[in-house]
Design brief:
The complex is a heterodimer of chains A (199) and B (162). By secondary structure, chain A is mainly α. Helices cover 72% and strands 0% of the residues of chain A. The longest helix of chain A is centred in the N-terminal third of the chain and has 24 residues. Chain A is globular, with a radius of gyration of 19 Å. The longest helix of chain B has 33 residues. Chain B has eight helices and no strands. Chain B is an all-alpha fold and 162 residues long. Classes of the chains: A mainly alpha (199), B mainly alpha (162). At the A-B interface, helix 2, helix 3, helix 4, helix 5 and helix 7 of A face helix 1, helix 3, helix 4 and helix 8 of B. Bound molecules: zinc ion.
């Protein structure tokens, strides 16, 4: 009973997406604008993981323009967000391929942190020493992520930074959910070991 | 029972995997184990916040996307525009060749003076240009179409989830 109630609450955003998608498919840009508003942070975060901070905004915009031109092809069997995630990932992989063709790719560098990442000023109430330590720990986590396998890193970042659930990651990447679980477990295990005593 | 969580169990807890009931109970009651799990989760959350802080002005981004709907896919269109001239130029060259042949024939010059134009070759060049699928700008659209096996797995996953 409780599970049913919880599921229906969870399903609400999906239902709203579907209603907006139907309106957008009829050519209503305002409905599409609302879909953008609902998903743009996550799409940006996904793009951020693949193409890096400099290109993430352009890749995210590209994603939505492609989605708009392909609204007809969404059949509603997956969540709208999952469908959008696939477009975002494909868009990013395209950009990486094009970069490689032009010979301007910095290998793994694409996903690395930009210079401004950790330059946020701390809240005045935060102890500066504690803030500096935390900042160091966050930097170290980023560095450790770079040493994960590509798949582990991808799954870890989609799970924790794009805040996708395991099923959604599996569908978006076209892999089995068991594989997602395994890769995530290994990623966390390895990060924890490499981070050592920074926590 | 009172044994602390192993590294594997801590990783499992961080990854939100289901622990055996007695291990889950231990985690609930044990401050050092909870600190391990919560510490790593908090660090990850802090990094997510730092990444989010890099984000663009999302309202501005939304407006740019909506403007883009009215003027669709500028970069892709630009590529198409640049390369759309290739088939047009090839077709124009073929037309010039055909008109040239016709003019030569209507002037009734002696056949021996005529240098035969490589009409077959020109037409096959035109065909090749028109059939060229490597025109930049198409590949990004082609790759948007999921491969049949990918599509099948999406459908399968949807079925098992429902
Ligand atoms: Zn313990």
């Amino acid at each position: 009973m409780r599970a049913t109630a919880m599921r229906s609450v969870e399903d609400e955003p999906g239902q709203e997406d579907m209603a907006l998608w139907r309106q957008a498919r009829e050519g209503d840009p305002e409905a599409f604008g609302e879909l953008v508003r609902r998903h743009q942070r996550r799409v940006w975060m996904i793009c951020r993981q693949y193409v890096g901070p400099d290109e993430a905004d352009a890749a995210a915009q590209d994603t939505f323009l492609k989605a708009w031109s392909r609204l007809e092809s969404f059949d509603g069997r997956a969540k709208f967000g999952t469908w959008l995630t696939r477009i975002a990932i494909n868009t990013c992989l395209d950009r990486i391929r094009r970069r490689k063709r032009r010979g301007t790719v910095a290998e793994e560098g694409a996903g690395e942190d930009g210079p401004g990442l950790l330059e946020r000023m701390p809240d005045e109430r935060v102890d500066p020493e504690r803030w500096a330590m935390q900042r160091q720990a966050v930097e170290r986590l980023g560095a450790c992520e770079e040493r994960l396998s590509a798949r582990q890193r991808e799954v870890f970042r989609l799970r924790f930074y794009a805040e996708m659930d395991l099923e959604e990651i599996a569908r978006s990447l076209g892999i089995h959910v068991g594989t997602v679980k395994t890769q995530l477990h290994r990623a966390v295990h390895r990060l924890r070991r490499e981070l050592g005593d920074v926590r | 029972m009172n044994r602390h969580l192993s590294d594997d169990e801590i990783a499992a807890a961080v990854a939100a995997e289901k622990l055996a009931p007695e291990r889950a109970r231990h985690l609930e009651d044990c401050v050092p184990c909870r600190r391990e799990v919560d510490g790593l989760l908090e660090l990850i959350a802090e990094r997510r916040r730092a990444l989010e802080a890099e984000g663009p002005d999302f309202e501005k981004q939304r407006q740019q996307i909506l403007e883009g709907l009215a003027h669709p896919a500028a970069p892709v269109v630009a590529l198409h525009r640049r390369h759309i001239w290739r088939p047009i130029l090839a077709a124009a060259a073929a037309l010039v060749a055909v008109v040239g042949i016709w003019l030569q024939m209507t002037r009734h010059r002696p056949a021996a003076v005529l240098r035969p134009l490589p009409v077959e070759q020109i037409l096959s060049d035109v065909d090749a240009t028109l059939a060229d699928r490597s025109v930049p700008g198409f590949e990004s659209l082609d790759s948007m179409i999921p491969a049949p096996d990918e599509m099948a797995s999406m459908i399968d996953d949807t079925k098992t989830a429902s």
